[in-house]
Amino acid sequence: xxxxxxxxxxxxxxxxxxxxxxxxxxxxxxxxxxxxxxxxxxxxxxxxxxxxxxxxxxxxxxxxxxxxxxxxxxxxxxxxxxxxxxxxxxxxxxxxxxxxxxxxxxxxxxxxxxxxxxxxxxxxxxxxxxxxxxxxxxxxxxxxxxxxxxxxxxxxxxxxxxxxxxxxxxxxxxxxxxxxxxxxxxxxxxxxxxxxxxxxxxxxxxxxxxxxxxxxxxxxxxxxxxxxxxxxxxxxxxxxxxxxxxxxxxxxxxxxxxxxxxxxxxxxxxxxxxxxxxxxxxxxxxxxxxxxxxxxxxxxxxxxxxxxxxxxxxxxxxxxxxxxxxxxxxxxxxxxxxxxxxxxxxxxxxxxxxxxxxxxxxxxxxxxxxxxxxx
Length: 375
Prior knowledge:
The protein has no helices and 32 strands. It is mainly β. The chain has one domain: 7 Propeller (Methylamine Dehydrogenase, Chain H), CATH 2.130.10. The strands form 7 sheets. Strands 1, 27, 28, 29, 30 and 31 form a 6-stranded mixed β-sheet that branches.
């Protein structure tokens, strides 16, 4: 499976790190997992269902069997994958041509029971609303503009659909850069100005958002927004009360540099904990390692998950190019690590105490992961 991501000419993107290591190496440190695994989805150029062993989601479940992925066989990849009630939604797009922002693709609802899927709409980016019963979607510029970037005044059609594909909100004209969704409505981070804004899902009216102008989006939950404006702390803002708490980040660890779409961060079912990747920097400011951390918004603590940070060499090379986490309905935190040079990946899960439980290495290069749950 190939490396995924939208071609962005207008904003800094997530630079994929190349590697030259040959042959499988142990990606995760921990104890072998025993017993049955919860079913989870991983996606990249293929879409896989992982229970006891990875298996491809049959093409008959996607786009009337024309292809395992949409919209065609040229460059179709799952570039966004998110849990919804009863399953997952995948944004599957063809990114083989250069465009200003994102890639127009299909939003597909795939039931966790592996019943036939349902194509909801064709857009460029998605954000699941709290509760997992509707998905905010946005379309964008579909052609190159000579690298001039996106005008600050550009507005993009943005609306919500339910899991049957029916619109459940007015069509709003919002700034390009959908990053998340709250109970009140969608969140955007303008690709030209960087400004984070909250919008009424019913009227499209700009709502008060008590964060500074330089706030960078990290994650959004039912009533919480996680953001950062410096390398020393993450902020959790309660959108109901406006109160804000700062959670200190461990010394020498920083959130990944600005990317779009954002590097995935996942809340657990309580909405109190969020998992995200952090990068370690040395005294010269160079990246030296990457690891997953759980931020507890109640205790204001940050805890490292993996038993051994994944090293980054002085040239910026990471032996694993994907590091993602997602909670399942049983409260276990699943971890995905992928090695792009050798076409294999490894999964593991953490119960909240003790070591990481590791699943045997499997062939393929998934770049997204989600564990379907109640929301």
